[in-house]
């Protein structure tokens, strides 16, 4: 660090004021870190606080001491707002999500002031780690970012100053006619209006970093469409209504005569209305345009179903976001769009709206710091020689979390893989990854670079009274999903007494998928746990999809529970899979599996009646209502006489049930079936719904028509895989 200036000639207040003036001329944001005693930091912040009006300032802290301070836990409520001064008081605790959300609300010329303990002491203070009484690796990472960033101003008690070395350059005035504030935003609005106006429905995908006016562009386009086409019907979908605040505000500003109610705006016989994904899919109202904001935060199966229902739609998502990630979205959803909507359009917004950045201005200092501190732009670059990478030439390693802090490049690569492996990744996931107790990280590495990674959490191990309370639903200790679910949901009374490893995430670099790396990592991980002989079982809980189950089944993790309702976030039922590692674990597994098998038939007739057919077939317990037995010669004769003759369904039902169950459980055959055929065969033959219900669900004219359609569908199934 440079030598401190003479305290007599240095004024901390004057230094901050001068920095903010430079940032104002450049229309960029400034970051100041004040490290020292809490009282010293707050005394430094008070003049700044008083110099800003109430609407432009925000003081965030873990433990608010008055009405002028806001809890960091409420940072999500700041979406769509704009501030000129943000004060983060980190003395009482750090919340990564709050930093990610609130920093995006700061406008050009604004200042973010962080109040922290002395940097050398901060990782070890009692409030640094929210998960355990131990030094915080995440705070250590923050300190490294602060000390290495020349663009921020660092103040240390009592009067030491490290000035900012960011070259703030004066910004020219913006010259944009109309409501748009950048050429990028204007291009997005034009594309959205064209999407809503043309006959051909080609989905539009808009991506950007935060602060580029993406949501406002959706609002401007919605206003223009409502104005130009009376009776136009628009729905907007997002992870939650608050995420659409900027969109609705922009539309309302441009249509002052519109009637505005909660999450709905009406104009000229048309409307703009927020609808959650599950409501859209359940009700399927007629729409002229569907807008999906923060699409990366919604699961791909939900997006696929929305695309099937509403081909005229626009997906908008943040590339480096605090909620979801556009990188994973683009990699995973691009092939789906290519398949279901060839010719879809892509548009990326580069120019910020709330501040300046670019060739003339250079990067915004605050945005760059937040990217590095929260790893929002962490990339998992494929290693050289990807064509040579196989499980046999990758090393299986357990990663030390403390060592990751000392190796920023490796940490970025690792977190980049985890981001791509999950549709929703927030800064809190990085904080949890580094600080939460009981976590273990395993990876496959090629030439020292991670190409596949898994996170394990250790759960359970409660005493008998606590385990009993969990079983009866009186206790729900956080961070023990497997132990709780096996006891409370699966009905194994003493399950929480035993120790489990839960595989929380597992991911493979997209360029290296379908080479067996994920399976190899999972198998070696299980072998490691078996060799250690310290746990009773290993398991996982995830959104059930027919395409995911084989991966776990191959490793010996068997379903023991299926959630009775669809998750709001994924639109799927959750499934819990388990593999015993000890005799006690075998007892828990056996009891949970037996209950799963015993309840399967009644659940399929009740809350799981609408389960996706292929998934139901793969979950079907052996010995339940539809045994997966081989077809006999007599069975084949019965089936052939039904599909090619006139024999009645009832006298051929049993062989048909065996056939359809086998086909649905075999991926290569199930994928050949027409989706409508698959659903029809499942509902009548496997689920045994009656003829009137079948006619109603498939809009058939009567039982004769239904029998004819069933025979035709069975014939095609028999020809494809019989």
From TrEMBL:
The keyword DNA-binding does not apply. GO terms for biological process: rRNA acetylation involved in maturation of SSU-rRNA; tRNA acetylation; tRNA wobble cytosine modification. Residues 397-582 form the N-acetyltransferase domain. It is found in: Cytoplasm. PROSITE patterns: GNAT. It is an enzyme of class 2 (transferase). Acetyl-CoA binds at residue 547. It catalyses: cytidine(34) in elongator tRNA(Met) + acetyl-CoA + ATP + H2O = N(4)-acetylcytidine(34) in elongator tRNA(Met) + ADP + phosphate + CoA + H(+). SUPFAM superfamilies: Acyl-CoA N-acyltransferases (Nat), P-loop containing nucleoside triphosphate hydrolases. Its main location: cytoplasm. GO terms for cellular component: cytoplasm. InterPro entries: Acyl_CoA_acyltransferase, GNAT_dom, P-loop_NTPase, TcmA/NAT10_helicase, TmcA/NAT10/Kre33, TmcA/NAT10_N, TmcA_C_sf, tRNA_acetyltr_TmcA. ATP binds at residues 185, 354. It holds the Pfam family GNAT_acetyltr_2. Its EC number is 2.3.1.193. Catalyzes the formation of N(4)-acetylcytidine (ac(4)C) at the wobble position of tRNA(Met), by using acetyl-CoA as an acetyl donor and ATP (or GTP). Belongs to the TmcA family. This is tRNA(Met) cytidine acetyltransferase TmcA. It comes from Thiohalophilus thiocyanatoxydans.
């Amino acid at each position: 660090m440079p030598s401190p200036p003479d305290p007599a000639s240095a004024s901390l207040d004057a230094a901050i004021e001068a920095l903010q003036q430079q940032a104002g001329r450049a229309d960029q944001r400034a970051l100041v870190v004040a490290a020292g005693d809490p009282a010293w930091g707050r005394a430094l912040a008070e003049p700044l606080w008083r110099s800003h009006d109430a609407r432009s300032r925000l003081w965030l802290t873990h433990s608010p001491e008055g009405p002028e301070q806001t809890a960091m836990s409420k940072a999500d409520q700041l979406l769509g707002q704009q501030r000129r001064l943000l004060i983060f008081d980190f003395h009482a605790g750090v919340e990564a999500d709050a930093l990610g959300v609130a920093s995006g609300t700061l406008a050009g010329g604004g200042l973010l002031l962080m109040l922290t303990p002395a940097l050398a002491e901060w990782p070890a203070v009692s409030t640094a780690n929210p998960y355990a009484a131990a030094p915080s690796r995440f705070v250590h990472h923050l300190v490294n970012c602060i000390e290495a960033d020349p663009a921020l101003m660092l103040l240390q008690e009592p009067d030491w100053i490290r000035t900012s070395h960011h070259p703030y350059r004066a910004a020219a005035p913006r010259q944009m006619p109309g409501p748009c504030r950048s050429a990028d935003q204007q291009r997005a609005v034009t594309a959205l209006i064209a999407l809503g106006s043309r006959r051909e429905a080609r989905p539009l995908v808009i991506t950007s970093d935060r602060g580029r006016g993406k949501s406002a562009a959706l609002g401007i386009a919605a206003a223009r469409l409502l104005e130009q086409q009376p009776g136009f019907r628009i729905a907007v979908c997002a992870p939650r209504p608050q995420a659409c605040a900027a969109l609705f505000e922009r539309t309302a500003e441009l249509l002052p005569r519109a009637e505005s109610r909660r999450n709905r705006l009406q104009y000229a016989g048309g409307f703009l209305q927020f609808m959650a994904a599950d409501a859209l899919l359940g009700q399927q109202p007629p729409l002229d345009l569907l807008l999906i904001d923060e699409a990366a935060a919604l699961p791909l199966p939900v997006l696929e179903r929305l695309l099937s229902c509403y081909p005229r739609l626009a997906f908008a998502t943040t590339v480096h976001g605090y909620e979801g990630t556009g990188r994973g979205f683009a990699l995973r959803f691009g092939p789906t769009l290519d398949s279901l909507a060839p010719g879809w359009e892509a548009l990326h917004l580069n120019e910020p709206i709330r501040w300046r950045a670019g060739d003339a201005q250079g990067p915004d200092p605050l945005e760059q710091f937040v990217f590095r501190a929260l790893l929002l732009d962490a990339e998992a670059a494929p290693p050289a020689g990807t064509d040579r990478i196989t499980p046999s030439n990758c090393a299986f390693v357990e990663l030390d979390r403390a060592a990751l802090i000392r190796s920023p490049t490796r940490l970025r690569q690792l977190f980049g893989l985890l981001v791509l492996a999950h549709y929703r990744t927030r800064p809190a996931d990085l904080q949890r990854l580094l600080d939460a107790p009981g976590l273990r990280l395993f990876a496959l590495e090629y030439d020292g670079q991670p190409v596949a990674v898994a996170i394990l959490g250790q759960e359970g191990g409660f005493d008998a009274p606590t385990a009993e309370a969990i079983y009866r639903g009186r206790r729900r200790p956080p961070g023990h999903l497997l132990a709780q679910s096996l006891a409370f949901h699966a009905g194994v009374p003493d399950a929480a007494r035993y120790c489990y490893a839960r595989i929380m995430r597992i991911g493979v670099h997209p360029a290296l998928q379908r080479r067996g790396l994920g399976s190899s990592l999972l198998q070696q991980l299980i072998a490691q746990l078996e060799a250690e002989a310290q746990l009773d079982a290993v398991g996982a809980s995830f959104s059930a999809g027919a395409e995911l189950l084989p991966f776990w089944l191959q490793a010996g993790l068997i379903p023991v529970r299926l959630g009775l309702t669809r998750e709001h976030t994924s639109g799927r039922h959750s499934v819990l899979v388990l593999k015993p590692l000890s005799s006690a674990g075998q007892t828990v597994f056996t009891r949970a599996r037996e209950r799963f098998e015993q309840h399967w038939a009644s659940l399929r007739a009740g809350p799981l009646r609408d389960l996706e057919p292929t998934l139901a077939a793969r979950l079907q317990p052996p010995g339940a209502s539809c045994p997966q037995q081989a077809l006999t010669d007599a069975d084949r004769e019965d089936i052939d006489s039904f599909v090619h003759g006139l024999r009645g369904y009832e006298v051929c039902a049993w062989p048909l049930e065996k056939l359809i169950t086998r086909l649905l459980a075999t991926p290569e055959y199930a994928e050949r079936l027409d989706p409508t055929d698959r659903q029809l065969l499942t509902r009548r033959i496997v689920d045994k719904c009656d003829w009137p219900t079948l006619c109603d669900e498939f809009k058939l004219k009567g039982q004769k028509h239904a029998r004819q359609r069933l025979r035709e569908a069975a014939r095609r199934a028999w020809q494809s895989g019989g």
